[in-house]
Amino acid sequence: MYETLIRGATIIDGSGAPAFAADVAIRDERISLHPAGSNIHAHTEIDAEGLFLAPGFIDVHTHDDTHVIKAPEMRAKITQGVTTVIVGNCGISASPVTLTGEPPNPMNLLGKQSDFSYPTFQDYVSAVEAAQPAVNVGALVGHTALRSNHMDDLMRPATRLEIDAMKKQLREAMAQGALGLSSGLAYNSAISAPTEEVMALVEELARFDGIYTTHLRTEFDGIIEAMNEAFATAKHGKIPLIVSHLKCAGAGNWGRSGEIIKHLEHHAQSQKIACDCYPYSASSSTLDLGQVTDDYDVFITWSEPHPEMGGRLLAEIAADWKLPLLDAAKKLIPAGAVYHGMDEKDVRNILRFPRTMIGSDGLPNDPHPHPRLWGTFPRVIGHYARDLGLFDLPVAVRKMTGLSAEEFKLHQRGLIAQNYFADLVLFNIDRIKDTATFERPQQSAAGIEKVWVNGHLSYSNGQLSAQRTGKFLARAVQSPSTSSLVLCEETL
Prior knowledge:
- The structure is a single chain.
- By secondary structure, the protein is an alpha/beta fold.
- 27% of the residues lie in helices and 22% in strands.
- The strands form six sheets. The chain has a seven-stranded mixed β-sheet with strand order 3-2-7-21-22-23-24, with no helix packed on it. The protein has a six-stranded parallel β-sheet with strand order 11-12-13-14-15-20, sandwiched between helices. The protein has a four-stranded mixed β-sheet with strand order 5-4-1-6, with no helix packed on it.
């Protein structure tokens, strides 16, 4: 007898293949596929006629590192059908980290010093398992995090001894189940790191079958050169590359998406490269003086010295203070901001690119977050696939499931297939919609009917389950002796 049987749904299996009819049964966390109308039964049977069933969405680019522990119900993610999050992006991770003071920018996006209590990667794994969040968690190790552990000054290149110490710590984390290394070379805390510093670190990844993800050194005018640096770094390490939140940032860069995609595709012929993006024409991060401009709106989400200015445009604040934009920004720092610095046509081109996965890049600790935190995945389906026809539904779902699991090497996830883990989302194609806006960003999506995580019904009819069944997802590797797929022993 099966535990759950979902009858009558139209199946989008995550592979990009056309939709088909089938009954999906669940037993012991796993999927069992049967022809539609099969004579099988379960303790719980669901009539899903008129609805679509897809693999649970995989958010490949998050900053949920501490949030999965502090707020394990993960409401912003589970309510939009996300069943797995990848943390540790942009060079910033909660582990392995040892701080002697407040976290440097942009590690402060993850919390305060007290939130960084995981000196080893295994400490973080144990904390996630103890919290048992509502979603599965896979984790990268941040380059900036490693730098902060071993350097007294982040505004310079690391010494040979410091690099050796970082390599040792990365090696330990990979042995404990990390997926790979991330970098955020655009940030002041890492921009002084030369290419050779990062190349030395990625040398540790190949023997663990790890990956390298990067927030490029610039996403503005010099983006081609920054991409070349990333390509060379990954090629040096003989590892796959994922370019984080690919975009054409800044008004002077608008319209270059075709050139950027062509450049990436050319290099992808000789090395494994993919990218992710979010379905919005505005970015969000800490307030960066280098991005202060009057070319487009800059919205302040928080400010430590002036918390009362959160939720206002920088231009309005500057006018009230009778200051130039840059001086007003200096007065607000440290602060967070949303930058409306992309062109919608470029966003659509990058979303449509076959190598593009979907990642929210949401900031859960932000008091006024970008709406992508709550709305990314329904927006891809409802706005871009259904309403605009940018791509068909199977392609949209693949970008959020099968392709993501493949690139991040998440074993037996991302597809509705026999014996795969039962991470599933049931949605209404007519109703699915992101309701989060820039004015009211913390709004649950419409049209998500039910979500299962590891076979357990975790969200149904707008209600979260009291039981959370997410797991820490250790890296899956190929055993060199047997060529069979095994999991890191340290995290079983």
